[in-house]
Task: inverse folding
């Protein structure tokens, strides 16, 4: 494996690690209004945060099992879709995480 | 759309039972939404190649399904280093004694090697390794998290800092005692003379012994001097370390050479016929000659180990600077 390819792999791993923590926050913030998976993906992509279905749906399930989201199956445009939105605990968590994010962001801006 | 059905079916196979239906319904909805959007964009139905491209981008069924499962492992990261250590110790404990016994039988009487099947060693190691793995996997699964490893440790109870340049005085003392005894034994029992009295047996020694004896004695005397210096100055220096390595190498070479030198020229025991005495002489010389390659192999391993220790000692000189301060011969 060449040096540049190795560097690329290291960068890719670090980039994914960096993204992983941010995705939960981004998903929670987008679910202040009710959405189903596909529209949620599109909303995030429009904001510049591409997320594939293999990452999003397991994340939604995890957040729901943690009590931060609620979901409901409903028919729309002749297809059954699962709609998600923030639970009261999720709203609280979003607030806390948002504050934490601002702190980290301010610190990193100072450091970088 | 058949491709999507087949894709979802392949994912379903790997999903947790209770969530299968729910996950597949959600993924199906997402894939169909993607297809619909693309069709609306192109103004026509997608062909198989285009659907395939969408599925390829989603990832292989196994990878997609694995993301819905909790992270699972047979032996977790806390236990894993202990597991590896236990595996190494058990394997060594299983292989080394058996190998030594087998080697002993092979050297003394090759006809008896059948009693110990080295051929079965692989299955024995596999058996031990499997049991060890099983025990650790059960420990992990039953929730033995070994929290005490993380919670009940005390920095003051950790082993003292190792310094590869330091020589424990107990080691030097042990070496001094052992080498003194060896020298006394060499001089009193194996002093070069044509015939050695060993209880009632008179053993005639080949003239080569004289060279071997003085070489071995010189080496053991130098080793003894190094050990005495080590006792009073318990830090390795390059000179002492290199000298010790040189003596080990010379000792090993001379010992191996002696095995093929037919050192026993004859044996005379009262009541033993000359034919039997000759046979006994030949047998002893043959056994010594047979051990030659084994001795070479063991010597090479020991010397390689010593050489590694030598390089490790002086590789991190700066790190262990205190160990080498003004400690000269």
Result:
């Amino acid at each position: 494996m060449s040096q540049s390819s190795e560097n690329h792999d290291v960068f890719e791993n670090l980039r994914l690690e960096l993204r992983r923590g941010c995705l939960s926050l981004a998903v929670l913030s987008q679910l202040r209004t009710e959405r189903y998976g596909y529209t949620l993906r599109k909303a995030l992509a429009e904001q510049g945060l591409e997320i594939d279905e293999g990452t999003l749906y397991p994340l939604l399930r995890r957040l729901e099992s943690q009590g931060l989201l609620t979901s409901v199956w409903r028919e729309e445009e002749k297809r059954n879709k699962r709609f998600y939105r923030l639970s009261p605990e999720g709203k609280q968590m979003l607030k806390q995480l948002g504050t934490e994010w601002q702190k980290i962001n301010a610190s990193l801006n100072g450091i970088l | 759309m058949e491709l999507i059905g087949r894709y979802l079916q392949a994912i379903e196979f790997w999903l947790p039972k209770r969530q299968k239906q729910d996950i597949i319904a959600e993924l199906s909805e997402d894939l169909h939404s993607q297809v619909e959007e693309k069709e609306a964009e192109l103004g026509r139905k997608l062909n198989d190649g285009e659907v395939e491209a969408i599925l390829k981008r989603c990832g292989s069924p196994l990878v997609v399904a694995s993301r819905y499962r909790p992270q699972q492992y047979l032996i977790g990261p806390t236990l894993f280093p202990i597991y590896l250590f236990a595996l190494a110790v058990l394997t060594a404990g299983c292989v080394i004694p058996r190998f030594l016994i087998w080697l002993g039988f092979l050297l003394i009487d090759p006809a008896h090697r059948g009693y110990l099947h080295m051929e079965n060693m692989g299955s024995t190691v596999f058996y031990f390794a499997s049991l060890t793995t099983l025990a650790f996997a059960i420990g992990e699964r039953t929730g033995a998290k070994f929290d005490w490893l993380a919670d009940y440790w005390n920095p003051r109870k950790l082993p003292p800092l190792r310094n590869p340049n330091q020589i424990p005085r107990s080691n030097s003392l042990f070496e001094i005692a052992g080498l003194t005894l060896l020298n006394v034994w060499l001089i009193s029992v194996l002093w070069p003379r044509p015939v050695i009295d060993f209880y009632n047996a008179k053993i005639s020694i080949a003239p080569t012994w004289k060279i071997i004896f003085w070489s071995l004695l010189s080496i053991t005397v130098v080793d003894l001097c190094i050990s005495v210096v080590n006792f009073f100055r318990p830090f390795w220096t390059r000179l002492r370390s290199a000298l010790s390595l040189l003596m080990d190498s010379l000792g090993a070479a001379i010992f191996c050479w002696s095995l093929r030198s037919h050192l026993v020229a004859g044996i005379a025991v009262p009541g033993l016929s000359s034919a039997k005495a000759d046979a006994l002489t030949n047998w002893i010389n043959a056994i010594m000659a047979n051990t030659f390659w084994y001795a070479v192999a063991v010597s090479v391993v020991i010397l390689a180990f010593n050489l590694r220790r030598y390089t490790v000692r002086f590789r991190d000189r700066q790190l262990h600077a205190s160990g080498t301060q003004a400690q000269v011969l």
